[in-house]
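Q: My labmate handed me this sequence with no annotations at all. I'd like to see what the chain might look like in three dimensions before we decide whether it's worth expressing. Could you predict it?
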Amino acid sequence: MANDGATDLADCTAHELLQLYRSGLASPTEALEAVLTRIARDNPRINAFRLVDEESARQSARASELRWSQGAPLGLLDGIPVSIKDLILTRGWSTLRGSQTVDPDQPWDIDAPATLRLRQHHAVLLGKTTTPEFGCKGVTDSYLTGITRNPWNLSRSSGGSSGGSAAAVSAGMGPLSIGTDGAGSIRIPSAFSGVVGIKASFGRVPAWPPSPFASLAHVGPHARSVEDAALLLTVLAEPDARDWSALPFEARDYRVGLERGVAGLRIAYSPTLGYAQVDPEIIAALDLCARHLEDLGAHVSLVDPGFPDPLELICAMWFLGAATLVAAQSESARARMDPALLWEAEQGHKLSALDISRVHMRRAELGTAMRLFHQNYDLLLTPAVAVTALPATPTGPDVMARAEDFLGWTPFSYPFNLTQQPAIAIPCGLSKAGLPMSAQIVGPMHQDALVLAAARALESALDPLGRPTLAQG
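A: Here is what I predict for the chain of 473 residues:
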């Protein structure tokens, strides 16, 4: 198979690559080489990867090319280049979790469920993407790997904690990546970097080992299109007995019904959730999204869900997880850890058992409120993040002093980790400064397919962002 050269394969979506493989117009090895060329050119400036395994990827691509040439591809991702966030165990590669405290010289012989599914569907695994230490914050920098930068403006952050994954997909360094989301860590970097990212219903994607952030933590896709996100979610949602909190398996392809549209759906539009301060440009972009959905036949109402800002709740649960993490480290290891993570752990140590019990009770009340809300509204439309991409700053001691510094700037993400509902971030325009803006669509628990279909409908009505220019701001 030979690509005619008219298309840079590094800019193709996964679905476009599969069509090219099927038609014989391109091959998995050609697609991989285009992606590796892009990585060699742009990763030194963006810093999205901690590890790239070219030899292993080429072996996988050659095997895939042979299967395609014989008309016998295997799985849904045969020959598709995919990267994996460096919090997710990957056999044969170290998983350093953005930390200098993890010993790389140990057996790495276990795949997490997500990695195992990629192998079973014959994806071409590229390498491990960057993360802040143990995924501790909403931007991606660490003492281990330095700053991960935004492909749209190198002076800006790619977001976090899955910043490497989102930046890689945005810059054409592989069409798909797997991230994690404990308080917005898929959706924040997707919004900052101009890609699609979905946090499915809690338990939809099996996860193992258990996260110290417990029932807040999700695993999910970064992609360039909603269709690609649906494809990858189909793969990731396959069952794994190691996750004791996994939902019952649904044998479904999330691409089926993706074009159902939004006609007749009742969509609540809340530009602030009743409490958030939002960049006016983002509000204007979301107003346009609401009008698009109305034009597509949805019944859109300007209404807030009615809950107060749950920042205190997410912080308490997150800080408790941080305290659990840090308590397992030696004193010498703690001396080498990110001050942000140490600050979070310090706050966690201040919480009493009674404090935590009360937080769980209030979380349950929030979850119930949203279940009742969705009796009247099929979906909720909000901004994904209240601001465009933050400045990229190095890891250092001058960090957080209050909860607002930790997550106050992303008030639309963490409520739905608390409620465990499906939520997707989808690009909806560029700011005057040329930075991506993003909408979020939230659905009732377990209605992942509905969220994807609505996102696809909105995506079809929006102008594409184009490709980032890697301009130094």
